[in-house]
Amino acid sequence: MAQGDETIFSREIQIFADQVQEIEQAVSDVISLRELDNATGKTLEYVGEIVGITRPVGMTDNNYIKLIKAKIQMNSSGGEPERLIAALKALTGATNVSYYESLYLACLDFTGVSVIDNLWNFMKALVAGGVDLRLNYVDSVTPFTFDSDTNGLDNGLLGGLVT
After folding, report:
1. Measured in Å, how far apart are the chain's first and last C-alpha atoms?
2. What is the total count of domains within the chain?
3. Does 61 fall in a domain?
4. CA distances to 52, 110, 112 from 94, in Å
C-alpha cells in the first residue's frame, strides 16, 4: 500500500469512528433522558401517561416527577408501611420518616423539604381499606437529644426546660 493510500484509509476510518461515536452518544442520550429523574417537558408527560397521571396545569417538572413517583407507589401499593414511607419521601423530599400504628390508624411523622398540594389525598389512596391516616409534619428542629457521653438529655433548643 502506498503512503497516499494509507492516509486516505486512515481518514475513512476516522470518519467512520466519528459517526459511530455520534450514534453512541445519541443512544446514550435517549436512554438517559427516559429515566424519570432526568426526564423533562414532553418526555416527562409521556412517562406520566404510562403510569396514569397527567400533569396539572402550570406544574413544574420537579413537582411532576414527585407526583409520578407517588403514582407509581399507588399503582403497586397494598397499604404496606414501606410503600407509605416511600411515597411520602417522594412527595416531600423527606429524609426522616417515622411510621407507627394505632388501632385502624397509620401515622407518619416526617420532616419534609416541601409539601405538595393534595398530599393527604395522595397518601390516603395508598393505605389499606378501612385504615385511617394521620400525617404529622415535624419541624426540622430537634428540641431534645441524647448526649452520647452520658446517655442523658443534651442541650437542644428546648433543653433548658428540662430540670
Report:
1. 94
2. 2
3. no
4. 24, 6, 4
